[in-house]
Predict the 3D structure of the following.
Amino acid sequence: MKSAVFHRHGTPSEVIELIEEADPLPGPKQVRVRNKVMTINPADLLSIEGRYGAEPLTLPATPGVGAWGIVDAIGEGVTRLAIGDAVLPVGGGLWADTVIVHEWMAPKAPNGADPEQAALMRANPGTAYLMLTDIISLTRGDWVIQNAANSNVGRMVIRFAREMGLHTVNIVRRDDVVSTLIEDGADVVLVDNGKINLAEAITKATKNPPTLALDAIGGSATGTLAASLGQGGTLVTYGLLSGEDHVISARDVVFRGIQLRGFWLFDWYQTATPEKVRDLHSFLEAKLAAGVLHTDVDARYPLSRIKEAVTHAGRGGRNGKILLTGDDNNA
């Protein structure tokens, strides 16, 4: 088996390396999965750099939280899966062409789903949907504001919000993505070019003060969103793209009652009931089948070209995800 590992934090292309080991064997209630598609997310790169906040307790470590693969061996007592089943492994360490997981951590992939889109189904769309539904109660007509709106999470927020009858204000840094977000269903798109007062622009753009803000950046961007919320609004931070601690005005917290919350999908899975997990997956599978979850893919790299893949994933100006494949066929 081959896997991508890093032994120290640093620039991903410099510290990530490919290692090869003997194929592992599944134990009781475990299955062996041959990953064919693996996703690269910003959190993976930040973790390698040591800037994500939830760092591995021990190094070396293997990144990766999204994959699509085929079960090729089963351990004693496995009842839910059979050799040949397509699955979506749950957990970390998925930048590997072969992984061992408990059968309950390998839910079956949706029947007939495109492997790439299925691999991308859980992390970003799940985060977007849960932030809109599982933190505060929103009603039709409410306004939601978010930064990094052209990210995959951001685009999913726009699509889900439109279906829920919510309005969105979306902050981006590139003029060329505005039309795409409008097509997704965005009500307002603001380009943060350093020449406008975002808080004032948001106030002018919305009929009612936003109830919910979603922050993927951190640093001073957090404070901008907080200042744009209505009295008693909720700000959810789920990313650290800036690598900086969140900065928020005491006035907004103390005198305007702005609530700052964090969201991490991994933690949600650790605490959610089986019923909640089932409901989330059923929802995502339905949206995948309907084409709502379609994610643009910018490039694909075999796992053996991991350094090139993380370099590409770290560049700005992309128009889609970077994927890893479990073989040397860069189709």
